[in-house]
Amino acid sequence: MSKEFFVDSDLCTGCNDCVKALPKHFVATDEDTAEVTSCDGADGAKVQQVMDACPGKAIKWKA
C-alpha cells in the first residue's frame, strides 16, 4: 500500500506542475487548484520530488 498524500487547497497556487508530473495521482480543479485523485500505486520518491518542487508547498503526506 502506498503512503497517502493530499493537496492543501489553501496553499495551492494552481500551477498544475503536480498534474503534469503525476497525472495518475493529481487533477486540476475548477477552483484553480489541484487535488489528489488516488494515492494507489504512487512512487513515494516521485511524489516527494513533486512535493519538494511545489511552489506553494501544498502537497503533504497524511499523518
Describe what you observe in this structure:
The protein has one domain (5-61): Alpha-Beta Plaits (2-Layer Sandwich), CATH 3.30.70. Helices cover 24% and strands 19% of the residues. The chain has helices at residues 17-21, 44-53; strands at 5-7, 26-28, 34-36, 59-61. The protein has a two-stranded antiparallel ribbon. Strands 2-3 form a two-stranded antiparallel sheet. It is globular and about 25 Å long. The two termini are 15 Å apart. 17% of the residues are buried.
What does the main sheet amount to?
2 strands, antiparallel
Straight-line distance between termini: 15 Å
Run of helices and strands: EHEEHE
Mean pLDDT: 96
Q: Would you state the CATH class?
A: Alpha Beta
CATH architecture: 2-Layer Sandwich
Work out the helicity level: 10-25%
Q: How does the helix and strand content classify structurally?
A: alpha+beta
**Cα-based radius of gyration, to the nearest Å:** 10 Å
Q: What is the domain total for the residues?
A: 1
Low-confidence runs: none
Strand-residue proportion: 15-25%
Count the beta strands: 4
Count, helices? 2
In order across it, which strands form the biggest sheet? 1-4
**Would you tell me which CATH topology applies?**
Alpha-Beta Plaits
Shape field: globular
Oligomer class: single chain
Short description:
With 63 residues, the chain is an alpha+beta fold.
Using brief descriptors, characterize the structure shown:
63 residues; 2 helices; Alpha-Beta Plaits; alpha+beta; 19% strand; 4 strands
Record the SSE blueprint.
Blueprint: E1 5-7, H1 17-21, E2 26-28, E3 34-36, H2 44-53, E4 59-61
Antiparallel strand pairs: 1-4, 2-3
